[in-house]
Amino acid sequence: MEIYLIRHGESEGNRAAKLQGCEDFDLTTKGKKQAVKLGKYFSTVKLDYLYSSDLARAYETAKALEKYQSVQTIASKEFREIHLGPLEGKTREQIYEEYPEVKNKNLLQSGLAGTETDEQITARCRHFYKTIRNIKENEKAAVVSHGGFLTIFLMYLLAGEQWNTLHRPFQINNTGVTKLSWREDRLSIHYINQHHHLESIE
């Protein structure tokens, strides 16, 4: 099996340097161009499944990819970004002014009331893992999601339910692609954050 993990194109929230979480933002004009480039890049890859977060920035990106495929996008809130509660829609400067206690914390794991807990994130990672491990050996699937959730999921793959005790070193750009595969129970990470399909518009 081959699994492609894909971050959405540039959103209005990205452009405004806001933490988006589960707040909905559309793609920017640049983000739409990125999504088109992504779709064309995947035109030579026959997908058997195409999953997406149900948030607009991811779903719009998936639909651009879908145009070059013979499958329809399956959208689910299970693939959403980490829920950031009172931090959503704010810049880091605004957050540090309102919540100075989180200044030296990972904002995806701030512990503030109303934010998604590590336990809830772990449960979503577990569900995500089961979903993609059900893909058959000769099939290919893509999942369009969000930078925070995808980097945490990569940590989950490597460290299991202890992911939250370790430094998370990954960075994924808009429409960055990560390719995974399994042979029996052995995971292979072919590449992380490949985005050379954007070279002509960056």
From TrEMBL:
Domain of life: Bacteria
Keyword Metal-binding part of the UniProt annotation: no
Keyword NAD attached: no
Protein name: Uncharacterized phosphatase
Keyword annotations: Glycolysis, Isomerase
Binding site residues for substrate: 7-14, 57
Cellular-component GO terms for this entry: cytoplasm
Signal peptide: none
MF (Gene Ontology): phosphatase activity
InterPro entries: His_Pase_superF_clade-1 (IPR013078), His_PPase_superfam (IPR029033), PG/BPGM_mutase_AS (IPR001345), PGM_Phosphatase (IPR050275)
Active-site residue list: 8 (tele-phosphohistidine intermediate), 81 (proton donor/acceptor)
